[in-house]
Amino acid sequence: MSTESVSESLFEPVSLRRVQRVRHDIVRRELRVLRVEPLGPSFRRVVLGGPELHGFVSASFDDHLKFITDPGTEAQAMRDYTPRHYDAAAGELTLEFVLHGDGPASTWAAQAAPGQTATVAGPRGSTVVPTDFAWHLLVGDATALPAIARRLEELPAGTRAIVIATVPHQDDRRPLHSAAALEVQWVDGNQGLLDAVRALALPQGEGYAWCAGESRTSAALRALLVEEKGHDRYAISAAAYWKQGEAGHKPARGQ
To answer: Which PANTHER family does its entry note (predicted)?
Structure first.
């Protein structure tokens, strides 16, 4: 590293220097469905396993892997999903699917049953956000809920977590658990997310904000937090998990 780059890094905000980006080798894995569990009317949890899961790595709560349907055919499609949980000892990878009635992965998940095969690849990298920020704000729609739930389970006691989330149906509003001091606000729709964040008084101390969901909504949430509320622009990630009117949108993160 040059002297100039060292000098520049010293003047970066602490929040930026604390976030680490890690690259992984992309490995394609053929797995088998072990268990399937409904999680309200709009979600289905699928637990995968198999010898090829050995060596799987997911270092961050908002990692995404490629879930591949109809591999090797003209109908092959790839969609991005959060590794909800990985148990190396048990050899199990858990994914949660939103059953939105459209798309190859959602259609597959709706009929998934033990014994079926599944193909995944990745994650190709991780953005590791430390858990010891004084507070964590997690905002998102149904597609963000697996990452939110995973993050909450990772946070230690002594921190504060604020969740603002929207899901398609009242019965999708599941209990969320964390050792952190947890506040959960369920709202209706993307406008509800924006209204709730606008009304929120950000806590004191160094905090990290994470938002994910529809592209325009995530961008609006980032602008609201940084431009209207003065939150540190280096201490926020706003991810576009999907885009209205665009099938197969590739997730994008704004930092």
So the answer is: FERRIC REDUCTASE, NADPH-DEPENDENT (PTHR30157), NADPH-DEPENDENT FERRIC-CHELATE REDUCTASE (PTHR30157:SF0)
pTM of the predicted protein model: 0.90
Query: What is the per-residue pLDDT across 238-254, written as a single tens digit (0 to 9) for each?
Result: 999 998 756 654 555 55
pLDDT tens sequence across 81-131: 999 999 999 999 999 999 987 789 999 999 999 999 999 999 999 999 999
The three state secondary structure string of 156-203 is CCCCEEEEEEECCCHHHCCCCCCCCEEEEEEECHHHHHHHHHHHCCCC
Q: Is the Cα torsion angle 141, 142, 148, 149 positive or negative in sign? A: positive
- CATH architecture assignment, domain 127-254: 3-Layer(aba) Sandwich (3.40)
Locate 240 and state its tokens: 């576009």
What are the E-state strand segments in the chain? 20-23, 28-38, 43-49, 65-69, 77-81, 85-87, 92-98, 117-121, 125-128, 135-140, 160-166, 181-187, 207-214, 236-242, 252-254
Domain 22-125 belongs to what architecture? Beta Barrel (2.40)
Hey, is 137 helix, strand or coil? strand
140, two tokens: 């998102």
